[in-house]
Amino acid sequence: MTGYGKSEASNDFITVTAEIKSINSKNLDLRINLPRIVNNLLNSLNNKVKEYVKRGKVDVYINYKLSPDIEIPVNINYQMAKTYINAIRKIEGTTGRKIEINMRDLLSMHDIFSKEDIDLSGSEDVFLTAVEKALIMLNKEREKEGEKLKADIEKRLKAIEKTVEEIEKEASSINEKIREKLTEKIKKLFELDDEEVKKRIELEVTLIAEKQDVTEEITRLKSHIKRFYQLLNEDFSGKTMDFLCQEMHREINTLGSKLKEINVTDPVLKIKTEIARIKEQVQNVE
Description:
Elements: E1 3-10, E2 14-23, E3 28-33, H1 42-52, E4 56-66, E5 74-76, H2 78-95, H3 103-107, E6 113-115, H4 124-171, H5 174-189, H6 194-211, H7 215-233, H8 238-258, H9 265-282
Parallel strand pairs: 3-4
Antiparallel strand pairs: 1-2, 2-4, 5-6
Helix pairs in contact: 1-4, 4-7, 4-9, 5-6, 7-8, 8-9
């Protein structure tokens, strides 16, 4: 699910800002962008994010600022400065033109001046705290989206329930429809008296009705829908819902192929469409 969280944490030495964005993805795709000086925290931060997020494409951005009272030692590479100056003098000798060098020019040469690395090992908990606070904010937004998702899935489940009931009602009259069709066919094909026709029809109807009985499929469909409602209110597990979508799709396929004697094409397609939409939605659920 999509979400955004941003937070800060600080101590007397440092202020850390953590910003986290997530978008929908079937699996967890985590990218953490943090300053080189705290690369040693990568595993700890990975584990911290995984405590809160199981699926989605997640980007974590971490920055820090030192307290204004902290003085960072600066190293000066005198040898490199001499090398630059000698090079400039050579250019003057070659071109015959005077090149002025001032302190600002030297300051722009980053390999002459460099800051000493500072030790942030005593502030590692500040980084983790900032990230955790941002994750809590992120999940609050994701929970809001989850409620919308839940409402949408419930609406689609109700549509499926209603259509299944329509099919069930239609299927209950299948024996009578089969009997009517067979009566017409047998009367045309054989010149049998009414009693023989009746016996033959009863036998054929029984055999065909057994093949086209969809009681089990409808029962399982209803059971899957009921389980779906339970998950929405209890577990909200995306992988379990995805599995249920596959099972529901399988049942409706079987049901559609069995009910050839009655026209259930439209309701079957309607149910398949709703299942596909639910399946698409649950890809975003953890």
